[in-house]
Amino acid sequence: MREIRVAATGRLTVSDTDVPEPGPGEVLVRNRYFTVFAALRTLLAGGVPGAPLPALRPGDTLVGPAIGEIVTGPDAGALVRHLRGWREYAVLPAAEAEPLTTALPDPVAHFAQGATAYGALTRAAPVRAGDTVFVSGGAGSVGTMAGQIARLLGAARVIGSTGSAWKAERMLALGYHAAVTRPFGERLAEAAPDGVDVVFDNVGGDDLRAAIAVANRSARFALVGALSGQLAEHGTGTTGPVEIDSYQLILKQITMIGYSAGGDAAVRAEWDERFAAWLAAGRIEFPHVLVDGIEQAPQALRDVWAGRHFGTVVVALS
User: Fold this and answer.
1) Where are the domains of the chain?
2) Does the reported pTM lie above 0.85?
């Protein structure tokens, strides 16, 4: 089998190794797909205490969401999702192999990063009918879902930010009412002349400052990512520093909360049900890019860091 490991130089390598043998209470899974996500830069940079995935050291195999087929035991043939991607075969405790529901038309749709967006926009910063919602990083794996979810939850206007004009065009086709590029402050003010009521912030940095400037009184902010810091060219990849005008938070009585769906089973179950219904009705899309072959995965990760893709990036294993 092949897997992607961290070399001593910090680069990623495709390595050959034996297919592992499952022990008591474990299952062997043949992976069919896994996702490529930007936050791996933080894990490769040493990780952050409290993060859901561990730091990656030289010699380690990368990790992340995967979908595979159980090949041993009474459940052989069943499709499951788990967190041991970046390898062709994985051994994991049977309890960590989550069976896929049959409600979605394509196994790849289970990679849609909607649970965090749905939870944030229904719990942390709930969208109300008629709201104007701003989604920073609206062209990424989470942002492409957040914009659609905000609209389906009743937002009257949904605005997203992105770093490139071609992505802005794709966002409009996806259902965003407006998509802004740099300079964010000036262009967000033009796109939201009546201010914003809800902010789904996946980026921090300039996007967050711009959102505070145009926020309405009692605006609700859900902070779900810090990509401006994680992907900063000269940053460590482990912090997301941003200077904001806290006086504006007081004057406008802004509510700001960090949010992660994490292991919230109730949010996940509710999202899975609504996502399946919206997909069946043709009311939502899952923007994604398929990359063929595990040997293409290291370059796919570099492309994600460089912002070359729209939506979620999935590696398909033959």
Assistant:
1) 2-111+286-316, 114-258
2) yes
Residue-by-residue DSSP string for the chain: -EEEEE-TTS-EEEEE-PPPPP-TTEEEEEEEEEEE-TTHHHHHTT--TT-SS----TTPBP-B-EEEEE-SSTTTT-EEEESB-SBSEEEEEGGG-EEPPSSSSSGGGGG-THHHHHHIIIIIS---TT-EEEETTTTSTTHHHHHHHHHHTT-SEEEEE-SSHHHHHHHHHHT-SEEE-SSHHHHHHHH-TT-EEEEEESS-HHHHHHHHHHEEEEEEEEE---HHHHT-TTS-SS-------HHHHHHTT-EEEE---TT-HHHHHHHHHHHHHHHHTT-----EEEEESGGGHHHHHHHHHTT--SSEEEEEP-
CATH architecture of the domain with range 114-258: 3-Layer(aba) Sandwich (3.40)
CATH assignment of 2-111+286-316, among 2.130.10.10, 3.90.950.10, 3.10.129.10, 3.90.180.10: 3.90.180.10
Taking the chain (318 residues) in consecutive chunks of 10 residues, what is each chunk's mean pLDDT? 94 97 96 97 92 92 98 93 97 95 91 96 98 98 98 98 97 98 95 98 97 98 95 90 96 97 88 96 98 98 96 96
